[in-house]
C-alpha cells in the first residue's frame, strides 16, 4: 500500500492535467446546455475526480467533409477571436481553403468562412452527430490541417470506451462479461495515461491501431455498455502511476517480458506469465506458414530494402537458425546465412521480416514459432515451414485468454491481476 501523501500528489498532478484540457470544453457545453457537464474537482474528505473528456482524431485526410445530426445542432464559429453561432438541422459541408474553415449548406450556400475553427454541438438529449455515414456521441471540432480538414470528436471518457471496447474484444456472450470488463479497464487505463500525449495537436487519441481502434456509436453493444458502466472510473495502477496496459489477441500459452519483445526498459508488471491454455480456443492458438526459399529470400530483401532505403539483394539462403528465445518462448534473435553474408533479426521486428505467404500484406502472426527446414543435396535451404502459436506481440493481457478465464469463472480484477503482475485496480472517478 502506498501512503496517502503519494496518492495526493498523484491526484493533484492528474487534476491539473485534466483541468487544462476540459476547462474550455466545459464552458462550451455549459453555454449550450446540451447536457450536465462533468467537471474535475477536489472535495474535502478525500480526492474525487469526475469523468474526464477525451479528444479523438477521426480524420485529417480530406479537404472536405459532410457533418450532419440526428436532429438539430448548433455550430460555434470562431474567427480571429470573434464567436458566431448558427443553428442547423440539415447537413453542412466543411471545406478548407487557404488554411481556413468554410461552411456551406446542402444547397451550396455559404454559411460562414475564413474561420479558425468550428464546433458542432448536438441539441437535445440523446441526439448524435454524424461524420459522413458514422454517428458519434459528444461534439465535433473541425480545424485546418494543412489543406485538409481535421475532425476531432470530443466526448466523455466512458462514451469513448463504448466505441473502443467492441472492436477490441469482439462480440461476446453474457458468460464472458468479466473479460469485457477487463478490456474496458485496460482500454480506459491506456486512454487516461495518454491524455495530452500529442502536445502540439488538439487531440489526445487517434482512432486507429496507433492508439485504440475507435468506431463511434454504430459499433456499440448493450452487453459492452453494461460492462463499461459497471467498471466506470476504474483504472490500473502500479505504485503511483498508470499502468501501460498493453494487450494483444492471443498469447499462444504464455505472454512475455516487454524488454524482450521491444527495445523498451524492463517493466515490473509486464512479465512473462502462463495462461494454462486459456486462449487455446482461439483460431490463432496454432498456425502454420510455408515459404519456398525464393519466397523467403524475397521477403527478407523487401524488408532490408525498406529498412536501408535502397534496393537490396541477398544471395541464396544457406541456413536459418534461432539463436535466442525470450522468457515467454518467442524468438529473440533469428540468424539468416547466405554464401556471403550473415543477417541478424531481433525481437518483434522478426514478424515484419518474415511476413506471410497466405496473405502477403500481413506480418507473421507471432514470434512464438519453431521451424521445419527443407534442404537440397548440397545442404542449401529449399523451403521453411514456420509452426507457431499466438497472434500479436505477446505483451500484457491476452484477450482470448481473458475470455477463456472469464468462461471458467474468473472476475475481471482476477484476470487483470494475472496478466499485469502486482498491479492495483483503483476507482479514479
Task: Write up what this structure looks like.
It is built from 10 helices and 24 strands. It has helices at 4-32, 157-162, 165-169, 177-193, 222-230, 258-261, 293-308, 350-354, 399-407, 412-419, and strands at residues 53-62, 64-69, 73-79, 82-88, 92-97, 100-105, 110-115, 117-122, 129-131, 134-136, 139-145, 148-156, 205-206, 234-238, 241-242, 247-248, 287-292, 317-325, 331-338, 342-346, 369-375, 381-388, 397-398, 424-427. Strand 3 (73-79) and strand 4 (82-88) form a beta hairpin. Helix 4 packs across helix 5, helix 4 packs antiparallel against helix 9 and helix 4 (177-193) packs across helix 10 (412-419).
Identify low-pLDDT runs: 1-12, 19-50
Major β-sheet annotation = 7 strands, mixed
Approximate helicity band? 25-40%
Strand order of the largest sheet: 4-3-8-11-12-1-13
Q: What best-fitting shape do the alpha-carbon axes yield?
A: globular
Structural category is alpha+beta
Count of helical segments? 10
What is the count of β-strands?
Answer: 24
Percent of sequence in beta strands:
25-35%
Instruction: Give the integer mean of the pLDDT values.
Output: 90
Tell me the Rg in angstroms: 25 Å
- How many angstroms does the end-to-end distance come to? 19 Å
